[in-house]
Amino acid sequence: MSRTRRLGWAGGLTAAAVAAAPFAGLWVLLVGSAPDPLTVRAGLGLALALAVLATPAMVAAWLLWRTWWRQAGPRLASLDGPGWLLATAAATLPADRRDWGQAMAAEAAQVPDRAARWRFAAGCARAALFPPGGGRMAVAAAGAVAVVAMGAVAVGTGAVLPAGRVLGLVLVGLLGGLATLAVARSGRLGRAGPGAAVAGLALAGVAACLAFTIYYLAEHPSYDPLGSRGLVASLPPVTAVVLAVVLAGCLWLALRPPRWLVPDRHGRRFGVAMAVVLVAGFLLASRQELGSAELDIGMMGYLFAALPAVLVAGSAAAAAVGRSFRAGLWAGAWAVVLAMPLLVATWLAEALAWHRQRGQLLLDGEGGPGLGASLVGANLGDAVWWTLVTLALWALPFGVLGAAAGSLRARRRRARERAGLVPSS
Predict the structure, then answer these.
(1) What is the pLDDT, as a whole number, of residue 203?
(2) How deeply is 55 buried, as exposed, middle or buried, from its count of CB atoms within 10 A (0-12, 13-18, 19+)?
């Protein structure tokens, strides 16, 4: 077996293992947090159920790796460690500096000593991440603004909203750090964006999510879970950090996406459409469930059934219209990025209606009349974690599979064209 094939198989197995790791961690968490020790049979049953849930993610990870390795594998397989480091650094360069990356790769090939090659590759990687032309004054100014903003958030939340201090500090720190890095790399913040629809939807989602989160932290900073004694924070530090990372990442990808995510207009359009459908469907399903006569209902069914269905159909349609796997892949990625903050905001808004009418949690209908006042704060953590898990770990892999299915016809046609069986268009 050639080196290219060996690395391809090793990378594919590694990608599948990485995709399965969150589900393995979830199994450990569930087993460890069980009120009573699980039997061996129960533990194996839980492992089997999570393995079934992990299968789409593992298949999608393998498919993504195989698609990428087919293009980049023959070139990368011939590189050593310094060459891989230099290639990774060159991939982060903006379009106007790609020639510099190619020149550095050609120059590195002329360095015979391995230690010298590592030093040369490390220096090039540092220059790629922090180019000297970024402007020290602009970088210092951006960093100073970020530090001042974090100080203002610390003072403001301490006086007005103590429960939101971790969220505010992490969010402002992340956005300030990303802005400072952008100035350091390019010397300016302005760059071609994905369009008004994507940016507007992202801004609306992040703003709505923050508004409802602040309301919950002000009105319900803690809650009393069923079957336990003592109050629990509605937004513990770990959940606050996760929410801040999600909001900062979604906002940054929508306002300043990487260059490879911008050009595909089909991906952007279908991504926006899928995000709107996901949020509208969630709202309609919540109202329908809220009007049901049953008391033990919730939105878990929508999360596990409707989200992957929309991602599969939308990504397949984008790939078919764009005649490429990439168009469907980017459509699914945009849908997840844009829908995540909007779904959290919609979840929190609908949870208030469930609280007023039934005293239940929106996720699974837990609780009942007279218990809502002590449970409503639990909706905040549910909204963050379940939206993240079901969108990123469950629905997005189906989007990858849908993109592969939608682009199958175009890939077969290109294969026939290369074989000379049909004329190229």
Answers:
(1) 95
(2) middle
Q: What is the mean pLDDT of residues 42-51?
A: 92
pLDDT of the residue at 95: 61
**Which H or E element spans position 223?**
strand 222-223
The SS3 assignment for 371 reads: coil
Q: How close are the terminal C-alpha atoms of the chain, in Å? A: 36
- For residue 211, pLDDT beyond 90: yes
pLDDT at 133: 55
Residue type, 45: G
State residue 408's pLDDT score.
87
- Phi, psi angles (nearest 5°) of residue 367: 105, -150
Lookup result for tokens 């589900």:
23
Phi then psi for residue 11, to 5 deg, are: -65, -40
* Sign (positive or negative) of CA dihedral 300, 306, 309, 313: negative
Length of the chain: 425
How far CA 154 is from CA of 131, 160, 162, 306, in Å, comes to 32, 10, 9, 40
Which tokens go with 361? 């949690």
CA distance 229 to 125: 53
Residue environment code for 103-140, b if the CB has 16+ CB neighbours within 10 A, otherwise e:
ebbeebeeeeeeeebeebbeebbeebeebeebeeebbe
Average pLDDT of 128-138? 66
Q: How far apart are CA 253 and CA 265, in angstroms?
A: 15
Q: How far apart are CA 24 and CA 33, in angstroms?
A: 14
User: Residue 351 in contact with residue 361, Cβ under 8 Å?
Assistant: yes
